[in-house]
Fold:
Amino acid sequence: MNVSTGGRRIRSRGATAALVCAIILLPGPGYAAPGEPDPHTDKSIEDIRTELDGLYREAEVATEAYNAANEKAVKQEKRLTNLRADLTRAEKRVKDLHDLAGAAARTQYRGGDLAATGIQLLLGDHPEAALDEASQARQALRGLVNVSETQKTARQELGEQTAAAKKELRKLESSRADKAAAKQKIEKKIATAEEIEAGLEEEQTRRLAELERQRIRQAEARWTDSGGPSGESAGKGKSKGKGGGPGGGTQASGAAGKAVSFAMAQIGKPYVWGAVGPSSYDCSGLTSAAWAAAGHPIPRTSQAQWSGLTRVGLSSARPGDLIIYYNDATHVGMYIGGGQIVHAPRPGRSITTAPAASMPILGVVRPGA
Structure:
């Protein structure tokens, strides 16, 4: 074997081992060769899994924070646009009223009759109430002057609202930029996590996969223990049997059925930060898009979904409901029945189904209730 080639391979393996050790803060290599007993091996693999989970969890928290900041900024941008349009219309109305009042005053000074109908058409929003007698012209003129002054006051107030909205938008844009910067920092950690996973030996990857399978089995058992509805069959949220527990046998229909069908049709598409489709989604992007497709728009982020939608008991969960996870409501999945959810898990993964109890459950909400 060529010496330089062998040296590079040794250095490459050494770099991978050093990276793994550094990320889990271990003093030295902690993995046994396949088939070689080592009491620390399982703990080391679990440590890797825990570290990776932590990195991806940080990413999701940062994602939801960015989504919330971005949503607020977008709403404020729309509000400011509307205020500016209103201000432009108000300025034109003030000018029209000023011009009309001047013309009316000149007409009366010359002793002529005021075109009452024209005044009323410009003065108000109800042309059917136009003046039909010239004798009322003088009264209309006084009203015109009063309305003109009122319009000036309203225009001033509108201008102040526009200025305040512009100032608020600058704050929201700054917050959005801060959240985006935080997200970028997390992305670097995600790259580190992916590098760790890519550098694992085949046996280590196998053991991580086995840990994942164990977690799935435990999560399925926890769903029953936690009081989740039983007796349902998964798959597009439809039940074939009557069910044996609270909520069991509930079949998704109507808007809920459409939302479940939409979400299930996205399986295999990648998780992407801040994405709401159609080619990729993040967790709340998937649930909000699914319910929008069902004709019932819901809040964009998992935290807003938790705070803004009707809450129901876990035992009453039925297909189409949203299960909110973690104390800070930073993950969400859609219940599809049979103790399963469909969700966008994390960066590097695709939309898939999973046990509903695979993460700490905060509660359940029901769109359209």
Notes: The chain has a mean pLDDT of 73. The first strand starts at residue 310 and ends at 312.
